[in-house]
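Course assignment 3, question 2. Fill in each field.
Student: A.L.
Task: Predict the tertiary structure for the chain below.
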Amino acid sequence: MERENSNRTRRITLRLTEQEYAKIEGKFKTSCCRKLSDYIRKHLFNKPIISTYRNQSLDDLMEETIVLTSELRAIGNNINQIAKKVNSLKLLPEFKEQLFLFELHRKLLFDKMDFISKHTQKIAEQWLQL
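Answer field:
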């Protein structure tokens, strides 16, 4: 709301049942109001209340994408550590071991990238179904 807070000196106390409060709180949580008092004030004075709509399936896809991003970062860190070790190696057996680890993590990285590509395609298809 506007900066009218300094003029608000009057208080109204209201008692609600658990069900009534849960209903109001549920509607408040779907709105873009930052405070419950702002939501109630807008409702009382018939001002427009902007509600948000959450698509749970898209939320689930986004959560999965966040997990995949974390996994990719971990794999990238492993590859960087291996590259640093390979650059400092002096003996051939150590080099072969690090090269094997590098190939293993490289395969993991490309597998995850393929999975993310398919995952992104699923998200795109759902968005296009709007």
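Instructor remarks: The chain has two domains: 5-44, 56-128. The helical segments are 18-29, 36-44, 56-88, 92-128.
Grade: pending
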